[in-house]
C-alpha cells in the first residue's frame, strides 16, 4: 500500500543547479568520467530498483524479521534475490575505486542513490552498507595483499563486511573493551571475546563475512590507545582466494528490536578465531573511524530516505482523505468534505517535513562534495578546508539530520490520524525503523559531544569559523530579492559565532558546561546549515521559470520564518549552562519519590 | 526486567502540600468522607496492584496481543484474572457515584490511581477506562431507568462499555457519519453501520458490552447537529436485568497496531442491532462529549504514567551503566568506568523527563480539582470558574501532556543507548504504546484547534484571561526567595496574554491564521501552565526541610531556566502566521519532485 517515487527532479536540481556538479566533475581529471546526464541515468536506474524491487519487500521484512536457528541466520523472504540483483547492478561498489572493481562515482552522487534504498527498505540497506564501510576502512588502512584478498569480492557482493566494536559492557566507551588478540607464530592472532549489536554479523546473503574487529593485544596500553583492528573472516581464505576452513566465529543470537527487523543484529562470539592485524597495533580506533565516519553520514541519509518516504505517503493520504471544510468555504462542494490539505495545520506539518527533506538532501550532497574534494582534488588548500568541513559536519550530518527526520516522520504520521497507528499504511514501521538512526554509530548525544569538544573547543573554533566565513561569503553574493534569506542567514551566522565564542570561554571555567550544552549547540549549527542550504537553493532557483522553482523560493522563506528562529531557543538553553544540572546528587535520580 | 514504583511521596506532596486536598475535602460535605490518610492508603493499595499484578502482564500483552477468531476476541494471558481482581477491588467505580455502586472519590485522587495502571500496562487500562467513560456519559444523559439498568453492572465489571464514533470515512469530522438509526414501534431503534477503531469493542473480560453509538435518525439535519446517541448492548437485557438474546453487533476484525497491542481495537458491524436512544434525538454529540472530555484528560494521564515508567527505568539503567569518566576526574576509580550519571548530557535528559513528570502530575491533579469543584461545590461562582477552567484546560491536558510525555520517553530511551532499541528493557514498547495518546480521542492538532477556536477566540479570550488572572494572583503571593520563578511566571503570563490578543485580532483578518498557529499556541499555554505548577510546587516546598523539598526547588528552577523560554520560540512561530503555508497550490504536495 505504501508508495515511493524517488525525487529525481529535486536530486537533479541539487546536483546540477545548486552545486553545479557537472562543472565540478568535468574540471577534475579523476571525476571527468561522469557528467550530469550519466548521474541522472544512474539515479533513474536506482529509482526503478528501489520502487519495483526493494519497496515490495519492506513490510514483510518487518513482519517476518530475520530468523536465528542454532547459529544460522536467514534473512526475510526476497532479500537474497534482491541482494544478488543489487550486487549484480554494481551498486555495492558504486563509490569504490575502480582498482577493486568499483565504479569510482563521487560521493555527492552515491548519497542520493543510497537515499532511495534507505527510503524503501532500511533493513535491507544495512547489509550492503556495512560491506561498503568495511571496504573503505580496508582501502584506507589495510596492506596491499589484504586489499587484493578481500576488496574485489566484497564489491561483487560475494563476500560482505561487518564492524565489530560494541561489547556488553562497552559501547560509547571503547577504551574498556575486553576482546583479546593473542599473537600466533605465523603473524596472525587468535581473537577471543563477545561482540554485541553486530549488524549483518551473520546472514545468508553472501558466501563469506569479513568481520573488522577491535581487540586488545597482550600488554596493550589501557584505554582507547591500546586498541587494534583485525580482519576476522567467517571462512578463512586460501592463497588462491577460495574459501578454506570455518573460523570459530559465530552468532550466539539475534536481537529482537523496535524496528529494522529484517536486519540481523547479532551477538558474535569469537573463540580463538584467526584474525589478521590491519595497520599497526594500537592504532585500530583511528582505522575504524574511517568506517565510522562513513556510517555516520549514512545514518543521516537513512533519515532523509525515511522522511522522504513518510512525506510522500502522508501527502498522498492527506490529498485523498476528505474531512471537514476549508475555513474559507467548501473547496469541493460536490464531495462530502474537503481534502484535509485545506487545513493549515495539516499543511504546516507536511511543509515541515518537506523543508527538512530538501535542506537535508542538499546538505548531504554538500558534505558528499566535501568528501569528494578530499579524495579527488589536487589543490592542497582546498583539500585541507574540505577535511576541516568534513570533520565539523559529520556529527551534524549524523545527528541533526536524524533528529530532524525523526521529528518529520512523527509529523507525517500525525497527518494520517488513527490510520497512522496501524500497520497498513507503513508509516508506523517507518518510525520504528528510523529511531535506531539516532542511537547507533554513536548516539546523537555523543555526536554532539564530538562536535562541541574535538571539533570545536579543541581547535579553538577554527573549523566552525571557516564554515561561517564560507556561509557569510556566499550570503553576501545573494541578490536583493533574496534579502530575507540573506539577512536571516547572516544573523544566524552571528548568533552561532557569538555562542561558539561563549562556549569556548565558558568551557574553561565550567567543567561540565560543554557536555551539558552540546546537543543545543549541535542543533544551532544544524539550523544554520539548513539556512545555508536554503540560501543556495533559493539562489539556484530564483532566475528560473516555472512552479517547481517558485515553490523552492516559498519553501526557503517558510524555513527562514518558521524553523530558523529556533536557533534563539537553543542559544538560551546554552546560556543556562550546567550548574543546575550538576546540583543534584547522584542518588536523587533513583531515590523513590 | 522493567521496574516500577509508584511515586507515592510525590503524589502525597502534590495532594497534601501543593493543593491542600485535606482542607478542600473536609470543607465540602459531599467529599468529607475522604481525608489525606485515606487517600494515601488508597494510592498505596493501587501501587501494590500495579507493581505486583499489572506490570508483569505488560510485556507479554505486547508480544501476544489480542486475538481475533471469527468474531471472538481473546485478551492476552492474565488479563482476565487481573481485570477480575481490578473490578473486585472496586477500582472501576472509584470515582463513580455511590448510588450506582461507586466509591465517590474525587477526581484529584483518581487521576493518580489511573496513572499507576497507565504506567504499568496501558493496554490493560483501556478496558476499564472506556467503561468508566461510558458510565459517565450515561450518568449525565441517560434516563433513570437506563442508569438503573446499566450503571451498577458496569461498575462491578460484569459489563463493560465502549464509545463508537469513528467510521471508515469519518473521524475528526463526525458530521458525515453514515450509521443509521431506524425507529421501531416500541421506541427502540435499529442501528446499522460500521464503526472502526473501537477500543474494547469485543473481548472476553465481561459478560456484556454496552456500546454507546453515534448514529443518524431518518430526516436528521445534516452535519453534527443531526447526530443521536444510542445504547447498543451486545446482549439485550431482560427486564429482570438478566442477559437476553444476542444483539446483531459484532467485531469484524481487530487492528494490527504500532503499540497497545493487548488492547482490542475493533471494527464493529451493526446489522439492524437494537439500540436505545440516550437523551434527545440530534443531541448525541453533546452527550458524547461528556465521555470524550473524560477520555481526553485520561490520555494526558496515560502520558504521565508512561513518562514516569520511562524515567524510573532510564534512571536505574543510567545509574548501573558504567561508561566513560566524569570530566572532573573518576568518581568511581575502583570501577572500570563511572556511572553515566556523571555526564551532564545524560542528567539533562533525565531532568527533562522528571521536570515534565512532576509538572504534568501536578497539572492533572489541578484539572482534577477543577472537575471536583464543578461536581461537588455549592458555590455557583466557583463552579462557573471551574467549568471555564476545565473547558480551557482539557485540550492542554490531552495534547500538551502527551506531547511532553512522548518527548520525555524519547529522552529516556536515549539514556539506554542501543539497549533502548531492543525489547528487553521495555522502553521501546513504552514509546510504541504511548504514541497513540497523541492521536486518539481527537489528534493533538485537533485539540489545539479546540483550544484556540472554541475555547479562546469564540469567547474573546475570556477563559484564558480568567486563567492568567489566577496565575498572576498566585504569583504575586510568592516570597522573595522564589523571585526567579515569580518573575518568569509573570513574564510568561504577559507573553501569553499578548499573543492571545494578537491571535484574536489577527484571526479576524486572516482566515487560516488560527488553524495555522494553533499547535504553537497550545504549547505556549502549556508551558505557562507548567510554570504555574512549578510555582505552586516551589511555594509548597520552600519552607520544608530535607532533600526531597530542596530538590523540588532546584527542579523548578531548572524548568524555569531550560524549558520555559521555549514560549518565546512558540510566539515567534505564531507571528509567522498562515500566509506562506497557504501560498502553495494543493497539487504542490503530491507533485513528483
Automatic annotation (TrEMBL), chains A, B:
Its EC number is 1.3.99.41. Transmembrane segments: none annotated. Residues 40-158 form the Acyl-CoA dehydrogenase/oxidase N-terminal domain. Keywords: FAD, Flavoprotein, Oxidoreductase. Residues 163-271 form the Acyl-CoA oxidase/dehydrogenase middle domain. The keyword Flavoprotein applies. Its cofactor is FAD. Residues 282-450 form the Acyl-CoA dehydrogenase/oxidase C-terminal domain. Pfam families: Acyl-CoA_dh_1, Acyl-CoA_dh_C, Acyl-CoA_dh_M, Acyl-CoA_dh_N. InterPro entries: Acyl-CoA_dh-like_C_dom (IPR025878), Acyl-CoA_Oxase/DH_mid-dom (IPR006091), Acyl-CoA_Oxase/DH_mid-dom_sf (IPR046373), AcylCo_DH-like_C (IPR036250), AcylCo_DH/oxidase_C (IPR009075), AcylCoA_DH/ox_N (IPR013786), AcylCoA_DH/ox_N_sf (IPR037069), AcylCoA_DH/oxidase_NM_dom_sf (IPR009100). It catalyses: 3-(methylsulfanyl)propanoyl-CoA + oxidized [electron-transfer flavoprotein] + H(+) = 3-(methylsulfanyl)acryloyl-CoA + reduced [electron-transfer flavoprotein]. PANTHER family: ACYL-COA DEHYDROGENASE, BROAD-SPECIFICITY LINEAR ACYL-COA DEHYDROGENASE FADE5. Involved in the assimilation of dimethylsulphoniopropionate (DMSP), an important compound in the fixation of carbon in marine phytoplankton, by mediating the conversion of 3-(methylthio)propanoyl-CoA (MMPA-CoA) to 3-(methylthio)acryloyl-CoA (MTA-CoA). This is 3-methylmercaptopropionyl-CoA dehydrogenase.
Amino acid at each position: 500500500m505504501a508508495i515511493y517515487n524517488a525525487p529525481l527532479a529535486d536530486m537533479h536540481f541539487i546536483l546540477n543547479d545548486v552545486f553545479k556538479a557537472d562543472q565540478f566533475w568535468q574540471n577534475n581529471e579523476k571525476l571527468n568520467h561522469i557528467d550530469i546526464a550519466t548521474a541522472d541515468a544512474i539515479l533513474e536506474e536506482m529509482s526503478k530498483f528501489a520502487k519495483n524491487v526493494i519497496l515490495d519487500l519492506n513490510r514483510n521484512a518487518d513482519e517476518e524479521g530475520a530468523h536465528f536457528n542454532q547459529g544460522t541466520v536467514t534473512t526475510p523472504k526476497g532479500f537474497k534475490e534482491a541482494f544478488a540483483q543489487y550486487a549484480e547492478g554494481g551498486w555495492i561498489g558504486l563509490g569504490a575505486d575502480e582498482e577493486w572493481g568499483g565504479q569510482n562515482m563521487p560521493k555527492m552522487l552515491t548519497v542520493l542513490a543510497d537515499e532511495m534504498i534507505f527510503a524503501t527498505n532500511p533493513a535491507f540497506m544495512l547489509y550492503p552498507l556495512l560491506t561498503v564501510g568495511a571496504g573503505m576502512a580496508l582501502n584506507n588502512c589495510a596492506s596491499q595483499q589484504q586489499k587484493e584478498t578481500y576488496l574485489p569480492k566484497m564489491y561483487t557482493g560475494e563476500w560482505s563486511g561487518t564492524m565489530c566494536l560494541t561489547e556488553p559492557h562497552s559501547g560509547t566507551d571503547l577504551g574498556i573493551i575486553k576482546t583479546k588478540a593473542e599473537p600466533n607464530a605465523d603473524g596472525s592472532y587468535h581473537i577471543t571475546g563477545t561482540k554485541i549489536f553486530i549488524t549483518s554479523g551473520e546472514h545468508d546473503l553472501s558466501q563469506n563475512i569479513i568481520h573488522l574487529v577491535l581487540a586488545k593485544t597482550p600488554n596493550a596500553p589501557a584505554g582507547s590507545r591500546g586498541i587494534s583492528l583485525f580482519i576476522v573472516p567467517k571462512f578463512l581464505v586460501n592463497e588462491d582466494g577460495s574459501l578454506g576452513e570455518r573460523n570459530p566465529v559465530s552468532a550466539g543470537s539475534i536481537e529482537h528490536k523496535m524496528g529494522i527487523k529484517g536486519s540481523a543484529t547479532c551477538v558474535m562470539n569469537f573463540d580463538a578465531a584467526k584474525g589478521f592485524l590491519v595497520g599497526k597495533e594500537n592504532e585500530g580506533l583511528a582505522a575504524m573511524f574511517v568506517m565510522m565516519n562513513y556510517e555516520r553520514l549514512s545514518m543521516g541519509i537513512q533519515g532523509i530516505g525515511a522522511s522522504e518516504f513518510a512525506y510522500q505517503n502522508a501527502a498522498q493520504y492527506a490529498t485523498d482523505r476528505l474531512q471537514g471544510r476549508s475555513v474559507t468555504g467548501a473547496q469541493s462542494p460536490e464531495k462530502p468534505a474537503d481534502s484535509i490539505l485545506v487545513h493549515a495545520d495539516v499543511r504546516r506539518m507536511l511543509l515541515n517535513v518537506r523543508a527538512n527533506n530538501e535542506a537535508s538532501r542538499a546538505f548531504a550532497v554538500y558534505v558528499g562534495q566535501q568528501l569528494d574534494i578530499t579524495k579527488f582534488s589536487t589543490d592542497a588548500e582546498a583539500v585541507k578546508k574540505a577535511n576541516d568541513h568534513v570533520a565539523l559536519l559529520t556529527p551534524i550530518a549524523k545527528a541533526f539530520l536524524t533528529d530532524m527526520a525523526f521529528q518529520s516522520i512523527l509529523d507525517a504520521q500525525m497527518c494520517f490520524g488513527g490510520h497512522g497507528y496501524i500497520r497498513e499504511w507503513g508509516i508506523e514501521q517507518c518510525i520504528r525503523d528510523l529511531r535506531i538512526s539516532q542511537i547507533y554509530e554513536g548516539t546523537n548525544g555523543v555526536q554532539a559531544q564530538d562536535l562541541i569538544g574535538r571539533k570545536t573547543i579543541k581547535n579553538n573554533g577554527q573549523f566552525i569559523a571557516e564554515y561561517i566565513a564560507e556561509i557569510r561569503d556566499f550570503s553576501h553574493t545573494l541578490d536583493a530579492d533574496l534579502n530575507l534569506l540573506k539577512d536571516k542567514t547572516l544573523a544566524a551566522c552571528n548568533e552561532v559565532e557569538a555562542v561558539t565564542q561563549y562556549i569556548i570561554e565558558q568551557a574553561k571555567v565550567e567543567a561540565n558546561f560543554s557536555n551539558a550544552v552540546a546537543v543545543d549547540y549541535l542543533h544551532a549549527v544544524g539550523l544554520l546549515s539548513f539556512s545555508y542550504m536554503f540560501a543556495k537553493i533559493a539562489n539556484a532557483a530564483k532566475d528560473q521559470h516555472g512552479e517547481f522553482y517558485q515553490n523552492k523560493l516559498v519553501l526557503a522563506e517558510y524555513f527562514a520564518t518558521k524553523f530558523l528562529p529556533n536557533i534563539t531557543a537553543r542559544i538560551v538553553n546554552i546560556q543556562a549552562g550546567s550548574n543546575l544540572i550538576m546540583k543534584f546528587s547522584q542518588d536523587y535520580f533513583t531515590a523513590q519519590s
